[in-house]
Each structure stands twice: as structure tokens, then as C-alpha cells.
Fold:
Amino acid sequence: MQKDINRLLPTGEVMVDIMDSINQNLRQQELMQKFQTAVQQNYDWFVDYMKTVPAGQPMPYHKNLGLTESEYDEMQSHLNDIELSSSGKEKIIIQKDNNVIEFKANGKLQLLNYLKIDLNKNIVIFLNNQLPFTDTANITTETNALKSKWKGYNWRMEEPTDLDFENIKNLQTVDIKQYKFTLGQLEKNNKTWLYLKGREFNNGEYQVNFEISVVF
Structure:
């Protein structure tokens, strides 16, 4: 695994594509906006409804989702068409010392300056948060936003660890901290995909909410 990570993150300066744009046509945007508005307006109901959906199964239609049944089917059919695209390029510097990988970056990617990968301990460190290694990923279809099969590794932390839908229904009474880091290789072009996501919810508001996705 260490050898694989070192291969995916070569030392030195690299030019990366910032993958934070989503290719959607106006119809897809319209349906998604209606759906998101309905979820916000019926949030407690939506949380209860989600609990009735078996794990790994698609969510059945309901009128509270803000769409007609045909519109909902159309939105679902579009989900596999969503594709991430590059909004621009940026240089980052990858440094390694005693099996610890660090980054130097600017602009949209400046949060990578606070990211470290400790290969000896197999943990990812972001600011004061330690993300333990959780699992390997082996995505065997191209029906994802990257439009590629890919293999990689995941590190994540979540507090509280027993977060469930009941907690989510009462956001005013719970503090939530979630961080995830993914490193993988896209099969379609053998490029490295690096993904970092952080969320902290406190007193009913997001204190931290970001996603970084780059390909190089």
C-alpha cells in the first residue's frame, strides 16, 4: 500500500485539474432544484422516509419529493449522466520526509497545506483531525461522476461515531464532524484522483463545509 501511495503521489511539482464543476443541462438543474427545495421544506418527513428504504436500494417515488412521478423517474435517469469537469488548473507541490507526505498549494487548493499523510501510521492528518484508514475502493463501473472505473483507498473520521437519522433530524442538539480523504487511480487514463471533504456542524450551522477534488 505504501508503494502504491508513493506512486500515486510523486515528489515534486504537479499540475492538477480542479474537478469542481458539474456538467448538467438546464433540465437536469431544474429537476434537481425542485427536488432539493422539497426536501428542505419536508426535512423531518424526508429523514423518516429515508429510514424505510432498504440499504443499497433506490428511493421510491413520493409526492412530497416535489416532482411528478414521471419527473422523478427522469431525474433518476439523469443521475448516471452527471459528470465532474475541470474548472481550471493549479500547481501543487508534493513533499516527502520520513514517510510523511505534505502538500503546498494556493488559491482554491490552499487547504491542502494543512493535509499530511503519515505512511508509517497509515493515517491522514488534516489540521488537528486524524483520519484512520477505513477501506480500499474498487469501483468496477463507469456510472459515476468521474466517468471511469477506479481503485484506491479511503480514510475517514466521524464524530459522533453513532450518527443516525434521528441525530440528523435534530441538528440543533448535536455537533457533527466529518472528514474524508480518498486517493485513487482512474482506469481510463491512469491519472491520480485526490479527494478531501470536511464538514463540521455546530449550533444549527455549518462551521466547516468544503470539498477538494483534483486529478493529475
In short: The chain is about 20% helix and 40% strand.
